[in-house]
Each structure stands twice: as structure tokens, then as C-alpha cells.
């Protein structure tokens, strides 16, 4: 009789333990460097890698600063990911980086560390302070309705490489 309650207890502990481990290992979509901004785009992992790739490939680096829990970032990400022209230009003509943390390069936060913030760095490793968004209080922010303006700024970044470098 003593073995039965003991065996039942051990079985219950084993089942509980396995269940807890299964809950911890629940299936999640794999986290990619895209973070939802465009899965077909090749993304670099760090700012330093982005600078290296920009110089090596002679393409501008596009740096997107965002936070996962920011509603404005999420709205911009959705518009960015759904726009075919942006996706194609980003994939073919830019070195792409999205960051959820600040870099040590203070040139990437000339008017503050707000999000979302999109900045361009040319292959000479110069942060382009002359490519800004529409807002005077946050120069490098874009909203979903600013997608056409962002496209124009991407084209401007490409033109500047041809004329200045």
C-alpha cells in the first residue's frame, strides 16, 4: 500500500516537470534580423558591420532605430514592410540595419534618442544630416503616411553617392 501513493506522487512530479518544460519550449516564430521590417532584405547585425559593408559595397547604410513596444514604430514597420518599392530599394541598393538599442556613435542622435528614427550613412562613413524627415522637432522620424517622403529620401541618398563620392 505504501508503494502506491509514493509511485503516484513520483508519477505526478514527473508529469508536472515534463509539462513545465514543454511550456517553456513553446513554439515561437524564429527571430530574424529583419524583426518584421522585411524578411527578404539582407540585414546586418551591428552598426560596425553596417559601416564595414557600406564602405566595402559602396552603398549607403540605412539605420532604423525602433523599439518593439512602441506603437509608432510598429505602425511605421508595417507600412515599411508592405511597401514594395521600399523593400526592393532596401534589398538591392542599401546596407540595412535595424536597432532596438542606441549605438555609441553620437552622430546618429544629433537631435535626441527618440524612436522611430531613420538615418542614412554614406560609404565614406558620413552620417547624412542633410537627409531628414518632415518634422522640425524630430528631424529623422517618419510616420506611416510619410512613406512616399522616405522613398524620396532613399533616392536622394543614392543620388548623393553618385554626385559626391
Automatic annotation (TrEMBL):
Q: Which domain of life is it from?
A: Eukaryota
- InterPro entries (UniProt xref): AGR/TXD (IPR051099), Thioredoxin-like_sf (IPR036249)
Q: Does the keyword GTP-binding apply?
A: no
Print the keywords alphabetically.
Signal
Question: Which Pfam families does the entry mention?
Answer: Thioredoxin_7 (PF13899)
Query: What is an example of a GO molecular function annotated in this UniProt entry?
Result: dystroglycan binding
Q: Is Signal there in the keyword field?
A: yes
CC per GO annotation? endoplasmic reticulum
PANTHER family per the UniProt record, alphabetical: ANTERIOR GRADIENT PROTEIN 3, ANTERIOR GRADIENT PROTEIN-RELATED
- The entry's protein name is AGR3 protein
Leader peptide range in chain numbering = 1-22
Native organism:
Centropus bengalensis (lesser coucal)
- Which family is it part of? Belongs to the AGR family.
Amino acid at each position: 500500500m505504501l508503494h502506491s501513493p509514493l509511485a503516484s506522487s513520483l508519477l505526478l512530479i514527473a508529469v508536472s516537470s515534463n509539462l513545465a518544460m514543454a511550456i517553456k519550449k513553446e513554439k515561437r516564430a524564429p527571430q530574424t534580423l529583419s524583426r518584421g521590417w522585411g524578411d527578404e532584405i539582407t540585414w546586418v547585425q551591428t552598426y560596425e558591420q553596417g559601416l564595414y559593408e557600406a564602405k566595402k559595397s559602396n552603398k549607403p547604410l540605412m539605420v532604423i532605430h525602433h523599439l518593439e513596444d512602441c506603437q509608432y514604430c510598429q505602425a511605421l514597420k508595417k507600412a515599411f514592410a508592405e511597401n514594395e518599392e521600399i523593400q526592393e530599394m532596401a534589398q538591392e541598393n542599401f546596407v540595412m540595419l535595424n536597432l532596438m538599442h542606441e549605438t555609441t556613435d553620437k552622430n546618429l542622435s544629433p537631435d535626441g534618442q527618440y524612436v522611430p528614427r531613420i538615418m542614412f550613412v554614406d560609404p565614406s562613413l558620413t552620417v547624412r544630416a542633410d537627409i531628414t524627415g518632415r518634422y522640425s522637432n524630430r528631424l529623422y522620424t517618419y510616420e506611416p503616411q510619410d512613406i512616399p517622403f522616405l522613398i524620396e529620401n532613399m533616392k536622394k541618398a543614392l543620388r548623393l553617392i553618385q554626385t559626391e563620392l
